[in-house]
Amino acid sequence: MLDVESSPDLSRMPTETDNEGAEGQNSYITTASSYMAPSLSLPHEIVFVAVVCCAQLTTQAGLSQSLSIIHIIGEHYGLREKPGDLAWFMAAYSLTVGPRDLFGHKRMLITGYLWFAVWSMVAGLAVYSNVILFNFARALQGIGPSILLPNGLAILGSTYPPGPRKHMVFAIFGAMAPGGGVLGSTIAALFALTWWPWAFWSLAIACLFLAGLATLTDGRYRRSVWFWGKLKQVDWGGAITGVTALVLINIAWNQAPIVGWQTPYVYVLLILAVLLIPLRVASVPLLPLNALKSSDIGFVLGCLSCGWGCFGISAWISPVAVSGALAAIATGYLLSKIGPAWTMVAALSAFLAGIILVATMPVDQIYWGQAFVCVLVITWGMDMSSPASTVILSDAVSKRHQGIAASFVNTVVNYSISLALGFAGTAEVHLNNGGKTKGDMLKGYRAALYVGVGLAGLGWLLNLMFFWHDYRRRAQEGRREGEEVEGEKRT
């Protein structure tokens, strides 16, 4: 058993001072001594990082587990010939993956694993019910990763001081995405040979095991007045209306390919979503506005959205785990050597190259042609963009807000995947002539993939703008420093 007393305290506790009052309850130790990683032994650090990184592994496994057996599940529910309905098996899961970082990272990490386990179990039990329960369970299953990912990233961010080691840990966390995708698809396909619900039940068992292991490796949790003070500061009205607006937009875009845009409730949902978007700013926002005013943040989130949106439109299930491991090692090195801006350029280039390869692939081409190259290239986009974006956003905020900043990256990634599926589905159903012939079906598939090419291209252009802006800013800072040095010499 690991030494619990020496484990890092991951519960995001405020500094303990007697005279700071209410304001002091929201302050945090930000000195170098507050980082726990240097005090961990190597075996303890390995287990600690493994438990946290499994948050990413299980998240992507949960997303991809329905992909490899999507037609088997669809056939069970009588939906095999309805691709629009099948898309909800994945979109429902990504829909609810968003920010859940309010009440302390340690407890929320364990809660996330437990929630993930419960609704994975329900998704499997939906075999005895109908597709409505299955999609409902998948949507609630996605809340588990929405709790796990931001808190896992915040734990790593608050445990490791800035430097190459932190960059490498973030890269390893990102590398779990392709590995988890392959693992989830493979296990689901194997269980489908016997009975597909076991794909979800096995994930539930794994999450329960990780919850128990996280309890042993995490630090002690202490209840404080800060918890209740934070609860009172939450803008519940804005949270409900804002999240509802995002959900309605997603539902409208993913339902439109199924029932058509001419159906009244589709555009009514979009109108309601616009009306529900909050127009006022909370007095105590989860993420400080000054962190979002930087143009760099806008560029980064735009690039991330376009890149991962194109990834969600096409499915790559092959040796991405090996390529992902190599990409993670390279990313951890590149972040320290060339910085996040160049890393994002390389990531969006990989996204664009990968989607072009699969969109232009001939029907009768062997797998070892463009398809194999695509799965090797696209992984670099995943494993370079996510760590680089997380580093950029975490550097823009204080230590206490790193969990929310990480959840922004997580939200953009998963919401983009879900929403882009709706974009692609709309293009497919409007250009495939009802899918009456194989030629029509191919036309629809290519239309959907070309939407991905457009998103990747847009992200690449935004990335070039971000790089140019970063280059000019650094040049201006260098000139100012030179002028200051010259002025000091004259005086």
UniProtKB/TrEMBL annotation:
<dbReference type="InterPro" id="IPR011701">
    <property type="entry name" value="MFS"/>
</dbReference>
<feature type="transmembrane region" description="Helical">
    <location>
        <begin position="169"/>
        <end position="192"/>
    </location>
</feature>
<feature type="transmembrane region" description="Helical">
    <location>
        <begin position="236"/>
        <end position="253"/>
    </location>
</feature>
<dbReference type="Pfam" id="PF07690">
    <property type="entry name" value="MFS_1"/>
</dbReference>
<keyword id="KW-0812">Transmembrane</keyword>
<dbReference type="GO" id="GO:0022857">
    <property type="term" value="F:transmembrane transporter activity"/>
</dbReference>
<feature type="transmembrane region" description="Helical">
    <location>
        <begin position="198"/>
        <end position="216"/>
    </location>
</feature>
<dbReference type="GO" id="GO:0016020">
    <property type="term" value="C:membrane"/>
</dbReference>
<keyword id="KW-1133">Transmembrane helix</keyword>
<feature type="transmembrane region" description="Helical">
    <location>
        <begin position="366"/>
        <end position="382"/>
    </location>
</feature>
<feature type="transmembrane region" description="Helical">
    <location>
        <begin position="341"/>
        <end position="359"/>
    </location>
</feature>
<feature type="transmembrane region" description="Helical">
    <location>
        <begin position="113"/>
        <end position="133"/>
    </location>
</feature>
<keyword id="KW-0472">Membrane</keyword>
<feature type="transmembrane region" description="Helical">
    <location>
        <begin position="265"/>
        <end position="287"/>
    </location>
</feature>
<protein>
    <submittedName>
        <fullName>Major facilitator superfamily domain-containing protein</fullName>
    </submittedName>
</protein>
<feature type="transmembrane region" description="Helical">
    <location>
        <begin position="139"/>
        <end position="157"/>
    </location>
</feature>
<feature type="transmembrane region" description="Helical">
    <location>
        <begin position="447"/>
        <end position="468"/>
    </location>
</feature>
<dbReference type="InterPro" id="IPR036259">
    <property type="entry name" value="MFS_trans_sf"/>
</dbReference>
<feature type="transmembrane region" description="Helical">
    <location>
        <begin position="299"/>
        <end position="329"/>
    </location>
</feature>
<feature type="region of interest" description="Disordered">
    <location>
        <begin position="1"/>
        <end position="24"/>
    </location>
</feature>
